[in-house]
Amino acid sequence: MLTSVTNVLVKRVINILGEVERDVSDFFDDDVSFKRVSHVTGIKKTTQFASQSILEPFAELGAKYFENTHTKDEVVAVVVVSQTREKLLPNTSIVLAERIGLPNSTVCIDLPFGCSGFGNGLYHSSLLSKNLKGTVLLFLGDNITHFLGSDNTLLPIFGDAASLVEICHTSNFDEKIFFDIFSDGSGREDIQMEGSIFNNSNFKLSMNGTNVLTFAINQAPKSVNRLVDYFDIDTSLVSGIYLHQANKFVVEKVSSRINFLDKSIIFNDCSETGNTGPASIPVLMERIHGKNKLNGFILTCGFGVGWSVCSAYFNVDNLQII
Amino acid sequence: MDIKFLELMADVLELEPSELKGESKFRELVDFDSLCVLSTVAIFSDEFGKTISSDDIKECETLADLYSLLN
């Protein structure tokens, strides 16, 4: 689905990484194996939240946000994008809104998207912001490392992080965000959280890496190219392309198929965090730019579990990374 | 067999192309692990525009078997 939402802009991004830094070499029995994998994935460290509750980093982000903005009255909605929500019920967004002192009138939505979560979260948050004419706080993140079990093939890849993205309403119709949204349920078994709420079993992430790679290198670039072509985007205005940081190898393959001559603006770095799921794009922004203002127009593309892909194009002249 | 294919597979297996032949049983040459599978999938896609799966690779015993997947 190709679509756009007007009268909205992205204003702030705040990130938190897992407090515990883990050396990926610790997951291997020998240095040769570690170097071989790390050379391909580009990941040297992953981060882990100490708490098993994703609510804690989200609440910390909320507190940081209000320290910087003092605009509780303008917040109309809380959107939580997480695959490791606090509980299946109640909604984490409802609990979070209360935790950070928002009124009962706050619209709260949980969206359990994974690696496509930034774009999908941004889309739904934009609709809410436009319709409610207010600020939406989009929380993105997983503490996925607590769900990997002892599967050593995934431990060197995934990390925990959380992000808050502020989406604001504006009366300027020209401020808009463009989206390409793709969904394909045929990939349902290739990344999944095994276990069932009905028999109270433990949950564990499983992944078919080969099928994930095939999906990513086929569908992610198509989404970006489709978005650019359909909306006739002037590629000379694009100052950066931020892909979901699955790992260095996947990002390289996806990048090579994106129809941009200047590949240097397609960023690729999850070396110190690992794959942080729905938070990986805002985390990448801070990794590349630091706590600074961005400028120009950017493209983002998140892709993963589902299958789900969501690309977005928007102006970042108002965006501050805090 | 296409020399380009042999050279690319030599890269995946971290061997010299001269060590490889069509009848080479690639799982006996190296520990053909998940990284090798991913690299092979990427080669087929990048260099030959062909999508293959890990199941396709599982059915193959020799480099000639892999090469036949191109057709």
Layout: helices, strands, pairs:
The complex is a heterodimer of chains A (322) and B (71).
Chain A: E1 2-6, E2 8-17, E3 20-23, H1 31-41, E4 45-48, H2 55-69, E5 75-81, H3 92-99, E6 107-111, H4 117-132, E7 135-142, E8 161-169, E9 176-183, E10 191-194, E11 204-207, H5 209-230, E12 238-243, H6 248-256, E13 266-267, H7 280-289, E14 297-304, E15 308-315, E16 320-321
Parallel strand pairs in A: 2-16, 5-6, 5-7, 12-13, 12-14
Antiparallel strand pairs in A: 1-9, 2-8, 3-4, 7-8, 9-15, 10-11, 14-15
Chain B: H1 3-13, H2 26-29, H3 34-48, H4 54-58, H5 63-68
Helix pairs in contact in B: 1-3
Secondary-structure-derived class of chain A:
alpha/beta
Low-pLDDT segments, ≥5 res of chain A: none
**Number of helical segments of chain A?**
7
Helix content of chain B: 55-70%
How much of the residues of chain B is beta strand, in percent? under 5%
Order of helices and strands of chain B: HHHHH
Total beta strand runs of chain A: 16
> How many strand segments of chain B?
0
Q: How many strands, which pairing sense, and closed or not: the largest β-sheet of chain B?
A: none
Helix content of chain A: 25-40%
With strands numbered from the N-terminus, the spatial order across the biggest sheet of chain A is 1-9-15-14-12-13
Poorly predicted runs of 5 or more residues of chain B: none
Q: What is the distance, rounded to the nearest whole angstrom, between the alpha carbons of the first and last residues of chain A?
A: 32 Å
Overall mean confidence score, pLDDT of chain B? 91
